[in-house]
Write a structure and sequence with these properties.
The complex is a heterodimer of chains A (about 200) and B (about 170). Chain A has about 200 residues and is of the alpha+beta class. Chain A has one domain: Glutaredoxin. Helices cover about 35% and strands about 30% of the residues of chain A. Chain A has a six-stranded mixed β-sheet with strand order 1-10-9-4-5-6, with helices on both faces. Chain A has a two-stranded antiparallel ribbon with strand order 2-3. In chain A, strands 7-8 form a two-stranded antiparallel ribbon. The model of chain A has no long low-confidence stretch (mean pLDDT about 90). With about 170 residues, chain B is mainly beta. Chain B has a single domain, classed as PCu(A)C copper chaperone (Immunoglobulin-like), CATH 2.60.40. Chain B has no helices and eleven strands. Chain B is globular and about 45 Å long. About 20% of the residues of chain B have low confidence. The chains are: A alpha+beta (about 200), B mainly beta (about 170). The interface between A and B is medium-sized, with 30 and 32 residues. Strand 8 of chain A pairs antiparallel with strand 6 of chain B, so a sheet runs across the interface. The structure holds copper (II) ion. Copper (II) ion binds next to strand 9 of chain B.
Amino acid sequence: MKAKPLVPILLVLGLVAVAYLLLPKGSHSFYGTRLLNPKPVDFVLEGPQGPVRLSDFQDKLVLIFFGYVHCPDVCPTTLLALKRAYEGLSPKEQERVQVVFISVDPERDTPGVSDQYAKAFNPSFLGLTGSPETIQEVARTFGVYYQKTQYRGPGEYLVDHTATTFVVKEGQLVLLFSPDKVEETEKVLGDLQALL
Amino acid sequence: MGHLYFTCRVPFPATAWYPKGVKPLLWPRSLASGLTLVGLLLGGAAWAQALATPGWVRLVPPVVKDTAAYLTLENRGSAPLRLVGAETEVAQRVSIHMDHREHRGGQVVLGMRPLPHLDIPPKGKVEFRPGKYHLMLEGLRRPLKAGEKVTLVLKFQDGSRLKVILPVEMR
Ligand SMILES: [Cu+2]
């Protein structure tokens, strides 16, 4: 009598185990926000050695963060998180990942300054910027907001900006990390490896 | 954990009246290494005592002329403590900043806002850390190096000052 309820329980457990084994291999539950309809994206911006096109990295996973150099609190927090994630990849995986920092403050940040800034986090990172009009256009493509605040004089102001990290694969925006999520290095690594 | 820093001002005159129950301690200028304690008497009764637990100064790329300092500031006293500013030899200006967060188009927009002062309630504490508060060191006079120590003097409304030494770290 007592043993009877065990049968259906065992049956259910067995079915769960079978279902688990039948899950498609490689299925990964993403930690970042997956875009149900990946969005085609491209841009041409200024790098330290001239124009850089996003599609130049067609065969790489591109991680894009918009910020500005005079930002000692928010931007380094995310760039340090991207450094940790990038340095957590194997050298083979690193070859297929490009981290890009885009300055939304072209008035103060030249392409050279933006790139030196990015490279201080990891020498393989790339810093870009462009004319105010181009930056505006690229920001619109990614749904990035940025606005000067606390203006004290020429070159003396702060900038509010969207602090999302965008992941582009084969010219398509596929995944987003909020500034809080991007700090979870292990989970970010899991997502990147699933996309590689 | 690093050193703790206390501050305060030696009560003046030396024959200060101490509130009932408060033992007239010796207010040594310097205790153990890195520990400075001073007393602060306000109107003879309520007093504020600042205690700083060092955090770090963020190592920023040499192209950047601004950085942020982090620490925890505690008020061990019974009167409110108001931080009104800070100074350091390494930067032209130090501002008290609070992080600003809003949502735009479903995404997080971050920024920072200067504060004219910051109150630490009695027995309370304020954490300066990424995402909350930072002391913004503006106009660095020279690039900082990893591992070096930066001295920061915190200034309070009552005129007291607190010296804190923070290491420069990339984190
Ligand atoms: Cu700031």
